């Protein structure tokens, strides 16, 4: 589903370089990515292939010393050329991110309610009372039981899956147009992964938010992404409609990824059958 | 019962066990140290008379088994009787009541100031990591840390009293004033209670130098901990989350970074406060400040055993109570601890 009109987000010739003792290393190399309105776009690739660096470049949270080149166009502005203050009006507000490990990404000493409302109050100028009411709505939206009670809870009182649901609710608080999900199921138990994936799928349909979904797992990609970019060594080696890529991969690397996925699926099945 | 009260109860109980352990050790120390109480306290003539010696030993229970003596010793402590100082010929408890407030009067303000300054500078250094501001702050702290306390006290006295005349030449009060009626033993507080504002001003003026020196020394020690704690927090993923939420720097700094970085700082601050309350011997000596440090020092060089034991017991109580306070504050700041 490529849009003929201007895409919501358009990454043009993005490169990210990191200084190392043996000279600068290019982690992302001249990458082009487009995300249309309401589209779910996947970024697939092994760890270290530059997927997370791409997401960090969009959010302006690259590691210290890293430099981004090229353009990241969003709502008519190049995010890479914005000042910190200008970028702060975009991130958390128009673009939000869900990180891999909710146990590390949520502040351990602040209540879920505070973490749900602080950016809402800041970006939307709503009162604390309005924000609290919205917080309860949001927790309900991500299917956290007893949301009135949950807003007063601290992250450690939640299970891993609930923490990730809370993190998703936090990301959605300001009704962003783009949601970046960086390996959002990788740190979770296999048993709760499917629930979180279904949640993303439902949220995309219900709220119409566009998504950039990052994962190393092609099976996950298959169940969620409309289009997929396959990343290798910091650049896109193949892109297109997800089902097409999975059924008729043209690049050797994609074939290898699919093969390794089939391998691990087979291993899982053997393990499951071996269990009493 | 609320978890916090339960926690405090548990901690108080273990504190009591700890303090009991301290009394055992101090008691054994007295009995291990070679010496004959009768010989020390009786004249040679009386000592040579076996009847008088027996009467003396019976009076003080020295003829009893050691555990009976220990129970008696414990009973005395519980009644607030810490024995009599050979040096001042007064009850040790009375001496402590006089010297401890003088130490508290400089230790508490110094600690409070040091925390404010060290946290402020430490956070600034952490946020400007490896930049000139950070290097400057760290160098200053290193200089402070490498400066011998008595040297700093001497130089400060020379500069601020002798050269500039801004502060008095040590002591707690100018000669023209009498100490205010004792309530807390802290002159500033007692003067304020009595409404003697000229005495209050003079006592405050005398606090400037000792408090300033102790503050400088404490800041130097605390700063490194604050800096490294804050650097660790700044690297945490939840701070990246806060930045990705587009929050203003003010909220990130105080709500997200400060709160999380406070925990490790709290532990170190507690230990430093306990150490300050144990008296700063060298600084007190140079500035003629009659605090616990001086009392401990004088007791030690004259082998005033009862006084040494009294000071030891007091310092043990201080450490125990401050650890308890730190634990309580910890669980107030960190909900994960209260839940356990």
Describe the fold and architecture.
- Chain B: Belongs to the binding-protein-dependent transport system permease family.
- Chain B: InterPro entries: BPD_transp_1_N, MetI-like, MetI-like_sf.
- Chain B: This is Peptide ABC transporter permease.
- Chain B: Pfam families: BPD_transp_1, BPD_transp_1_N.
- Chain B: It is found in: Cell membrane.
- The complex is a heterodimer of chains A (276) and B (340).
- Chain A has 276 residues and is α/β, with parallel strands linked by helices.
- Chain A has a single domain (9-274), classed as P-loop containing nucleotide triphosphate hydrolases (Rossmann fold).
- Chain A is built from 11 helices and 10 strands.
- Chain A has a 6-stranded mixed beta sheet, sandwiched between helices. In chain A, strands 2-1-4-5 form a 4-stranded antiparallel beta sheet, with helices on one face.
- With 340 residues, chain B is an all-alpha fold.
- Chain B has 2 domains: 3-78, no CATH class; 92-338, Orthogonal Bundle (MetI-like fold), CATH 1.10.3720.
- Chain B is built from 16 helices and no strands.
- Chain B has helices at residues 3-32, 37-41, 44-48, 50-59, 66-78, 92-127, 132-146, 149-163, 187-194, 197-234, 237-244, 249-277, 281-286, 292-301, 305-333, 335-338.
- The longest helix of chain B has 38 residues, at 197-234.
- Chain B is globular and about 90 Å long.
- The model of chain B has no long low-confidence stretch (mean pLDDT 88).
- The chains are: A alpha/beta (276), B mainly alpha (340).
- The A-B interface holds A 59-61, 87-93, 96-97, 99, 101, 104-110, 114, 118-119, 122-123, 154, 156-157, 170 and B 236-238, 240-248, 251, 255-256, 259-260, 333-336, 339.
Give me some keywords for this one.
heterodimer, A: 276 residues, alpha/beta, Rossmann fold, six-stranded mixed β-sheet, four-stranded antiparallel β-sheet, 11 helices, 10 strands, 43% helix, globular, B: 340 residues, mainly alpha, MetI-like fold, 2 domains, 16 helices, 77% helix, 0% strand
């Amino acid at each position: 589903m490529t849009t003929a009109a201007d895409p919501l987000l358009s990454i043009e010739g993005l490169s990210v370089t990191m200084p190392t003792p043996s000279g600068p290393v290019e982690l992302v190399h001249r990458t082009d990515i487009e995300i249309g309105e309401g589209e779910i776009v996947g970024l697939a690739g092994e760890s270290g292939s530059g997927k997370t660096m791409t997401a960090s470049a969009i959010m302006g949270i690259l590691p210290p010393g890293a430099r981004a080149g090229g353009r990241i166009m969003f709502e008519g502005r190049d995010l890479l050329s914005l000042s910190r203050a200008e970028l702060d009006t975009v991130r958390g507000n128009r673009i939000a991110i869900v990180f891999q490990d909710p146990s590390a990404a949520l502040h351990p000493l602040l209540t879920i309610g505070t973490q749900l409302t602080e950016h809402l109050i800041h970006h939307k100028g709503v009162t604390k009372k309005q924000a609290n009411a919205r917080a309860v709505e949001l927790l309900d939206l991500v299917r956290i039981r007893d949301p009135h009670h949950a807003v007063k809870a601290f992250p450690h009182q939640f299970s891993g899956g609930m923490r990730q649901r809370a993190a998703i609710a936090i990301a959605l608080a300001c009704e962003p147009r783009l949601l970046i999900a960086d390996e959002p199921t990788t740190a979770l138990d296999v048993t709760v992964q499917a629930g979180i994936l279904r949640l993303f799928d439902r949220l995309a349909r219900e709220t119409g938010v566009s998504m950039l979904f990052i994962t190393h797992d092609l099976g996950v990609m298959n169940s969620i992404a409309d289009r997929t970019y396959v990343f290798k060594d910091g650049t896109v080696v193949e892109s297109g409609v997800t089902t097409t890529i999975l059924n008729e991969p043209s690049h050797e690397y994609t074939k290898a990824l699919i093969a390794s996925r089939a391998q691990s699926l087979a291993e899982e099945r053997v393990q499951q059958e071996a269990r009493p | 019962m609320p978890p916090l009260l339960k926690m405090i109860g548990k901690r108080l109980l273990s504190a009591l066990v700890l303090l009991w352990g301290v009394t055992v050790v101090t008691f054994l120390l007295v009995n291990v140290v070679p010496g004959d109480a009768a010989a020390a306290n009786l004249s040679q003539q009386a000592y040579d008379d076996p009847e008088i010696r027996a009467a003396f030993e019976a009076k003080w229970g020295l003829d009893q088994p050691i555990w009976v003596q220990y129970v008696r010793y414990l009973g005395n402590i519980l009644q607030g009787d810490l024995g009599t100082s050979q040096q001042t010929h007064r009850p040790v408890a009375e001496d402590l009541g006089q010297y401890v407030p003088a130490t508290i009067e400089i230790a508490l303000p110094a600690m409070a100031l040091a925390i404010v300054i060290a946290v402020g500078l430490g956070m600034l250094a952490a946020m400007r990591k490896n930049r000139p501001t950070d290097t400057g702050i760290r160098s200053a702290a290193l200089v402070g840390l490498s400066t011998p306390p008595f040297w700093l006290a001497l130089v400060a006295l020379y500069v601020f009293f002798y050269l500039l005349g801004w502060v008095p030449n040590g002591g707690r009060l100018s000669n023209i004033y009498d100490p205010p009626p004792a309530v807390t033993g802290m002159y500033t507080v007692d003067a304020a209670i009595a409404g003697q504002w000229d005495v209050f001003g003079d006592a405050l003026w005398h606090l400037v130098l000792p408090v300033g020196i102790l503050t400088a020394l404490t800041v130097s020690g605390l700063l490194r901990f604050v800096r490294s704690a804050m650097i660790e927090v700044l690297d945490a993923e939840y701070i990246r989350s806060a930045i990705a939420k587009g929050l203003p720097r003010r909220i990130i700094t105080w709500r997200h970074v400060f709160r999380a970085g406070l925990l490790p700082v709290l532990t170190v601050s507690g230990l430093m406060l306990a150490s300050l309350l144990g008296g700063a011997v060298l600084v007190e000596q140079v500035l003629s400040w009659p605090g616990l440090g001086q009392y401990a020092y004088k007791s030690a060089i004259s082998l005033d055993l009862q006084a040494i034991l009294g000071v030891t017991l007091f310092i043990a109580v201080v450490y125990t109570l401050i650890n308890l306070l730190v634990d309580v504050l910890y669980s107030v700041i960190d909900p994960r601890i209260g839940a356990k």
